UniProtKB/TrEMBL annotation:
Keyword Hydrolase attributed: yes
PANTHER family according to UniProt: BETA-HEXOSAMINIDASE-RELATED, PUTATIVE (AFU_ORTHOLOGUE AFUA_8G04060)-RELATED
Alphabetized InterPro entries for the sequence: Acyl_CoA_acyltransferase, GH, Glyco_hydro_3_C_sf, Glyco_hydro_3_N, Glyco_hydro_3_N_sf, GNAT_dom, NagZ_Beta-hexosaminidase
Sequence ranges assigned to domain N-acetyltransferase in this UniProt record: 636-708
Annotated keywords: Carbohydrate metabolism, Glycoprotein, Glycosidase, Hydrolase
GO annotation terms (biological process): carbohydrate metabolic process; peptidoglycan turnover
Domain of life: Eukaryota
Stretches assigned to the Glycoside hydrolase family 3 N-terminal domain: 15-342
Annotated GO MF terms: acyltransferase activity, transferring groups other than amino-acyl groups; hydrolase activity, hydrolyzing O-glycosyl compounds
Family per similarity comment: Belongs to the glycosyl hydrolase 3 family.
The name this protein goes by in its record: Beta-N-acetylglucosaminidase
Keyword match Hydrolase: yes
Lineage: Eukaryota, Fungi, Dikarya, Ascomycota, Pezizomycotina
Length: 932
């Protein structure tokens, strides 16, 4: 006989009754539908998910929940329903009511206040309001660590990118919910903080970090919440692809649920699956099979959001799995015990049938309103105010006009439910609080209109307000900018809505180029406000005054107005590693960094290069093949170079080397190489070299920008990306130093082998003959002016310098031009060279190929070219023919922009040699972090 504590309570012997408790289901409409009634009465459904499509007011929500519970009681349910809701605050709320339900900041907005106590207060208040309408289970807290802050859909729904900080706020949210009587559900295990999206509905977002990496960062908040008594955990519908883990859907994998969550993290609570209606899962597996897989993986409760036929399919699939012996009754009963224990902690029939309702909400209203105002006031963050534009009274008189520019923001789909309703959503949806346009929390246009009115009420001057779209800066915008005395431009998650970022930068340039009536240049004051993700311009100091609100709720924007006019001193701070980077640097070990000395250090650098090459993983081709110490030495009059070493002064061995260049023509400071002895990594040698390099480049007169990766010399064109794991590690390393790695640009070197037998793709020669373009090969400085004027269309650092070497390198170096036949206008150009040219010395990939090789470099196609790919292929084809005349066996092409160009090259027979990510940032970024 089973132990007493493992026995089910009386009345739970029936399999159908047991199974019904193991599903959470939603429905359409604001009243009880026949479908949800059937699920409760006929299928014994145990948990009902409500979302914004069901809830129009607090009063209606209370009435609906009571009806659902009454149906369950009358149908003979032994225990009440679990009524489940997403209520994360900020932009993700299922229940909205202007009178009775208070709006609080998002998780990141709360973290920006810096107060864990405030987080606890907000969680208690949120849970009290939900409890009043009859909700007993909240899908929260969000425990994801935003390890990639730039391009993730979660955004401000997380507390930030620091695992410990996310953990501390997550635990406070959890305890606050529990204190007010709600069951909790952490999400989204194992992490939605750094997903890679393949772009199709039928493709599942991918976690590529290894379990070791996840354990050190993403899993920390989940582990701590479990230790502190988390009631339930939602496991996501994401795939995992890394060493030791290959999972198609996390919530269907016993590796994730039974092994990682149950055994490794020792979680004993209720496990909830992601919604099995998500299109990627239904397309790949089907709901019936997915339900069986989720149950066998260890999920206790299966979530299906809205489709009644699909919900029936899931229930029938589970029953069939039990009847066929695929799922054991013991697993069903184990899950049932967990669900019943959860219900016992958060509900009873007395509570379920007597919700406190509006009287309770009315009583809470004054204190919760004060709490909301206090929270938003404390969250507003001024990231930068270089020219002291705040408060606005500093820069604009009462009678002058203020311009407000806001984006047209659509409601943000945030659930698998809304994905079903809107098939045009770009990425798989990862949660369940479907947003409704009727709620002012999501109606961006009306909220921004109210912002304009609030700004106008605060001052006697006129506020001009207009919106912008992906069409960019229009004449009406330029006219209003000229007319206004100051400009406020609002962005909402501009890193994912890139038109907003481009618009704000364009407006900034327009403001900088304004002139007074007397003809004097007079820059127009510009304030940028990010009302969602604070990372829109976090590292882009082109925007000199930058304010973050974390939400575009009316309460948040009211607090913003107070800050803009000086009625409120902003105290919020960005809860992330960016704001702490300087402190991190100061805590590291500092190595003695010395200037490179060729006579002293040449042999040591060659030995260091050998060590790094030997450390390259088996099967991978080192970027340093063919490189010697001299490869780094440009010795050009218009390029200032300074190189640094960390060395053992006793043995003369080099532990680290960093090469820097300052290209005067573009004002670009470049770190072209940073390498550390493999046996001495993780000792802060790289940090010490990097710090010295940045400080030295900052002293260069005319410095405008920094670049990680150099096209001249073409050794490391950026962060090497040969190995996915290594790429992520290096990106994170440089990101921790302040580089904006998520906005990197792909650049690569490619190779065409077996040149003697190579033939052009079918039809290419005919296409080129038919095009209205002429090609020629030129040498020498006689052609310099026209060519250098042409390549100004490409502002990439090093390109102009490569062309200058080519112009002076005859006969071993030349330039192929593509010209329009009608007017001789240059449409494109490319550099072609052989192994004896001066350029080859700085392109080690050429020398590393153990055969006779020719080189192609730096294609530049004019924006005036009608057919980019045709001109590109024509230039390359002629370059290949020139190199074949030298009896070469291969062609190496370097400095290729990887985005969009590689497909064109692979069709011609090229294969990847090395791939990199070039990273740029404004010089002011480092000025802030390395003050003189």
């Amino acid at each position: 006989m089973a132990p007493k504590e493992d026995m089910l309570p009386p009345g739970w012997e029936d399999l159908d009754r047991q199974m019904g408790q193991l599903f959470m289901m939603g429905f359409d409409g604001t009243s009880v539908s026949p479908q949800i009634r059937s699920l409760i009465e006929d299928y014994h459904l145990g948990s009902v998910l409500l979302s914004a499509k069901n809830l129009k007011s607090a009063e209606a929500a209370t009435r609906l929940v009571l009806q659902l519970q009454t149906i369950a009681r009358d149908a003979g349910h032994l225990v009440p329903l679990l009524i489940v809701l997403d209520q994360e605050n900020g932009g993700v709320n299922s229940l909205y009511d202007e009178i009775y339900i208070r709006q609080f900041p998002s998780a990141m907005g709360v973290a920006a206040t810096g107060s864990k106590a405030l987080a606890h207060e907000i969680a208690v208040a949120t849970a009290q309001e939900l409890k009043a309408v009859g909700v007993n289970w909240i899908l929260g807290p969000v425990l994801d660590v935003l390890t990639n802050v730039r391009d993730q859909p979660l955004g401000v729904r997380t507390s930030g990118d620091d695992p410990q900080e996310v953990s501390q706020y997550g635990v406070q949210f959890m305890k606050g919910y529990q204190e007010a009587g709600l069951a909790t559900c952490g999400k989204h295990f194992p992490s939605y903080g750094n997903l890679e999206f393949l772009g199709s509905h039928t493709d599942v977002p991918i976690i590529t970090e290894s379990l070791e990496q996840l354990s050190l960062s993403a899993l920390v908040p989940f582990r701590n919440a479990i230790m502190q008594g988390l009631d339930a955990m939602m496991v996501g519908g994401v795939s995992m692809s890394s060493a030791g883990m290959n999972v198609m859907h996390a919530c269907l994998s016993d590796q994730v649920v039974d092994e990682l969550l149950r055994k490794d993290l020792k979680f004993q609570g209720v496990v909830v699956s992601e919604c099995l209606e998500m299109e990627a899962l239904t397309h790949n597996i089907g709901v019936g099979g997915g339900t069986v897989m989720a149950k066998n993986a260890g999920c206790d409760v299966i979530l299906l959001c809205r489709s009644f036929p699909v919900q029936q399919e899931a229930i029938n699939g589970l029953k069939l799995g039990v009847e066929n012996g695929i799922i054991g009754r013991a697993r069903i009963e184990q899950s049932l015990r967990r669900v019943l224990n959860l219900k016992a902690r958060c509900t009873s029939w007395e509570q379920a049938l007597n919700p406190p309702g509006l009287p309770s909400l009315t009583q809470m209203q004054p204190s919760h309103t004060n709490l909301s105002t206090r929270a938003y006031n404390n969250s507003i963050t001024v990231m930068r105010d270089k020219k002291n534009l705040l408060p606005l009274s500093n820069i604009i008189d009462a009678g002058e006009e203020l311009l407000l520019l806001t984006p047209l923001v659509k409601p943000l789909a945030a659930s698998a439910v809304s994905l079903s309703a809107n098939e045009s959503t770009r990425v798989p949806i990862l949660d369940h609080a479907s947003m409704d346009r009727s709620a002012s929390v999501m109606s961006g246009e009306s909220v921004f209109k109210e912002l304009g009115r609030s700004l106008s009420r605060q001052r006697s001057g006129r506020v001009l307000h207009t919106s912008y779209t992906h069409n960019g800066v229009r004449p009406i915008h330029e006219d209003l900018i000229k007319r206004a005395s100051a400009v406020i431009v609002v962005t909402a998650d501009a890193n994912r809505n890139l038109y907003q970022q481009a618009f704000a930068k364009h407006v900034s340039l327009v403001c900088q180029s304004q002139y007074s009536t007397t003809g004097e240049r007079c820059e127009k004051p510009l304030i940028a406000v990010a009302v969602s993700s604070p990372y829109d311009f976090a590292m882009d100091s082109m925007i000199g005054t930058y304010v973050c609100t974390y939400d575009f709720t009316e309460t948040a924007l009211q607090a913003l107005v107070k800050v803009l006019y000086g009625d409120l001193a902003p105290t919020g701070s960005l809860p992330s590693s960016i704001s702490r980077s300087q402190k991190i640097h100061q805590s590291r070990q500092h190595w003695l960094v010395e200037n490179w000395n060729e006579e002293r250090d040449a042999d040591g650098l060659d030995a260091l290069l050998d060590a790094v090459r030997e450390d390259c993983a088996q099967g991978q081709r080192s970027e340093l093949l063919g490189t010697t110490y001299s490869s780094f030495l440009l010795r050009k009059e218009d390029i200032d170079e300074a190189h640094f070493v960390v060395r053992n002064s006793s043995t003369q061995a080099l532990y680290g080397f960093c090469a820097t260049y300052f290209f005067r023509s573009t004002g670009t400071g470049v770190i072209g190489c940073l390498i550390v002895d493999p046996s001495r990594r993780k000792l802060s040698i790289g940090h010490s070299l990097h710090s010295r390099a940045i400080r030295t480049l900052l002293q260069r007169k005319g410095l405008k920008r920094f670049q990680l990766g150099s096209r001249l010399p073409g050794i490391y064109l950026g962060i090497p990306t040969a190995s996915h794991v290594e790429r992520k590690r290096l990106r994170q390393w440089f990101a921790n130093l302040g580089w904006n790695t998520s906005l990197s640009r792909s650049v690569c070197s490619v190779i065409l082998r077996n040149l003697a037998t190579w033939t052009p793709p079918d039809g290419l020669t005919v296409t080129l003959q038919n095009a209205d373009v002429l090609y020629d090969l030129v040498y020498g400085w006689d052609f310099a002016r026209a060519i250098l004027d042409h390549i100004k269309t490409n502002a990439r650092q090093g390109v102009a310098d490569i062309y200058r070497i080519a112009l002076g390198g005859a006969p071993n170096c030349g330039i192929i031009r593509a010209k329009r036949s009608t007017d001789d206008m240059i449409l494109g150009s490319i550099v072609v060279y052989n192994e004896r040219s001066a350029l080859a010395e700085h392109m080690p990939a050429l020398r590393a190929t153990q055969t006779t090789v020719g080189g192609i470099s730096s294609p530049v196609i004019s924006p005036c070219a009608d057919d980019y790919s045709t001109v590109m292929q024509g230039l390359i084809l002629l370059a290949i023919k020139q190199i074949r005349k030298l009896n070469a066996n291969a062609v190496v092409m370097d400095c290729v922009d990887g985005d969009g160009n590689f497909d064109c090259l692979s069709s011609m027979g090229f294969s990847m040699l090395h791939n990199f990510e070039e990273v740029n940032c404004d010089a002011a970024t480092w000025t802030m972090m390395h003050p003189s």
